[in-house]
Known about the structure:
The chain is α/β, with parallel strands linked by helices. The chain is built from 6 helices and 5 strands.
Amino acid sequence: MATICNMGAEIGATTSMFPFNNRMVDYLNATNRQDIANYAKQFAYNLKADENAEYDQVIDINLSELEPHINGPFTPDLATPLSQFASEVKKNGWPEELKVGLISSCTNSSYEDMSRSASIAKEAAAHGLEAKSKFTITPGSEQVRATIERDRQIAAFEDIGGVVLANACGPCIGQWD
């Protein structure tokens, strides 16, 4: 079960809610916020969809069928499956050289996303690799930034040439220099 409500305010939503579950408790505990986790558990019965709720649209996503996407070029809302990207570049006359890559965004990152990316960066560094293109990392919040700094994930990105930015608008709208 998941509720996708990232950037809800940008499309006019007055509120967005993710149903509370044990993964949230695990995350809060891992980020030294046990008091908040314990408090939230007391209200878990309220932090879920209404029984028999009706929705305008329900979309079922089989997570085992998802494939990585590349967003861009020119706009963050242009997402192309990785398997189709080379043909789309040719078909649309897009630039063939990747000049800047972005990991995450100011509204869409989590500690888990960062740790997976940092793991890849560490593996690359262990093999003596560096990024061929400039790449930036945008933590989704100050909490995520502080946590990835604490766990030396920022260093993992920097070791292969990454630049960690503030958690604010920037690369998605073409601002990175």
